[in-house]
Amino acid sequence: MTEQDLDALARSIVDTNRFMALGTADSSGAPWVSPVWYAPNGYRVLYWVSSPDARHSRNLEGRPHLAIVIYDSHRVGSWSALYMSAVAEELEDVDAAIDVYTTRSEAQGFRAWTRDDVLPPARRRLYRATVSEQFVLDDRDRRIPVHVE
Question: What is the torsion angle, in degrees rounded to the nearest 10, for the CA atoms of residue 111, residue 33, residue 7 and residue 144?
């Protein structure tokens, strides 16, 4: 595959899937993986909503670096995945992000979200991952960088 083909594959994976897996670690380094529904803002910023009491949210408080995988298991005969390294944060200023999140939510047939849904005293918070690295794996499990904004 050419570099342009791989970049197009990476964009397609982000655009057509609903869930990403977050790989976090607690303060002692114990790993934890959680699937979350996401809303992308381009291809380098990803939003999700979670309880601040969820294990992955607690892990991110002490260790904001995380791994993310979005994979498409629906392709006949194979599957494709985009791997990412990122830094995550709970958002306090949610106005711009909640617009992105609710637009994606409504486009997929879900409800609209408001700032009141993700700010105290609500049960959930809005999180942002800022991606620093993106890659796919070839048939020999070698990392091939992709560059999608």
Answer: 180
Cα 72 to Cα 118: distance, rounded to the nearest angstrom: 28
CA distance 90 to 138: 33
Regarding pTM above 0.90, the answer is yes
- Partnered with residue 23 across adjacent β-strands are 33, 67
Q: Per the structure, how many domains does the chain have?
A: 1
> For residue 48, what are the β-bridge partners?
127
Higher pLDDT, 144 or 21: 21
Please list, in sequence order, all residues whose beta carbon lies within 8 angstroms of the beta carbon of residue 143, skipping any fewer than 6 positions away: 83, 135, 136, 137
At 73 the pLDDT is 75
CATH number of the domain that residue 101 is part of: 2.30.110.10
Host domain of residue 92? 3-145
